[in-house]
Amino acid sequence: MAAALPAPSAPPAAAWSLTATAAGWCGRFQAMASPCEVLVEDLGRADASRLIGLAHAEALRIEHKFSRYRDDSVVARLHAARGRPVQVDDETARLLDFAAQCHAASGGRFDVTSGVLRRAWRFDGGDALPAPALVERLRRSIGWQHVRWDRPWLTLPEDMEIDLGGIGKEYAVDRVLALLQAETAAPLLVNFGGDLAVSGPRHDGSAWAVGIEDPARGLPPQADAAVLPPAGVLAVAAGALATSGDARRFLLKDGIRYGHILDPRTGWPVRGAPRSVTVAAPTCTEAGVLATMAMLQGPGARRWLAMQGSPNWIVDE
């Protein structure tokens, strides 16, 4: 899904940090409400610094372009059309094509029009459940099948919204990795909030060691999981990993935990799903969708993933 776009210029170094590692450098910054890091091996400080700047700029470009919170984003333009057709650019069209494929493959469970439910749900670790009447009213404004997508024209019904957050972060990982690979043959790992992709093995031929966050800790969204023992460690020599779960976004009411994965067909959290699902795939975008689709299966997540044939790591209660 990587788009052939011109490489952005690097932003000021103050926007990100660069620290030395045993084999190279680790750049860190914030984007898409997530801690982001890029590991670069076998390069000097100046080259690594330039690459981290490019990674940060590309992550911000994608965040700004597809944000539902900015009035100058593509998403805002679609919403402002109020039922009129809008012509979108090639990159946006590819994401919408992918969203349509995911909706069909999931039987309607993966739906990029379900973002309106954020008006009812606040997964902040508290115990405030929304009124069922509000959830039901919002649910009536969900359904990709009601959207007219005639590439490159999208007609979004006036009472509906598009939210690409379910694929945006993973897409950004793939874009950043492709951008950096065009600049260097050095080993790379791009990690945005636990969703990651690598360029290949490390400089010594070994796999990258990746820790899987322990969902039992119930960390708040901005907490640093790197200082805590992981639930497991996976070896990644190629491709990507993505995780979906309720470790950081949930509600707890009367002893019942409500994870943030919502079923667009009901407007309520999926019941009986694992605490987290991690999937390996050739791209982060693919891995992320598979992990989310598995969670949407509820108790059938493990069986569904086995049918897909994708390597995975599941953490249950």
Question: Could you list some keywords that capture this structure?
Answer:
3-stranded antiparallel sheet; 8-stranded antiparallel sheet; globular; 24% strand; alpha+beta; 7 helices; 17 strands; single chain; 317 residues; disordered N terminus
User: Averaged pLDDT, please?
Assistant: 90
Helix fraction by DSSP (H/I, runs of at least 4): 25-40%
Q: Radius of gyration from the CA trace? A: 19 Å
How many separate helices?
7
Strand content is 15-25%
Write down how many β-strands occur, each being a DSSP E stretch of 2 or more residues.
17
- Low-confidence parts, pLDDT < 50 over ≥5 residues? 1-11, 220-228
User: How far apart lie the N and C ends?
Assistant: 34 Å
In this structure, how is the largest beta sheet organized?
8 strands, antiparallel
Structural class: alpha+beta
Order of helices and strands: EEEHHEHHEEHEEEEEEEEEEHHE
Oligomeric status = single chain
Strand order of the largest sheet: 1-2-3-7-8-11-16-17
Global outline: globular
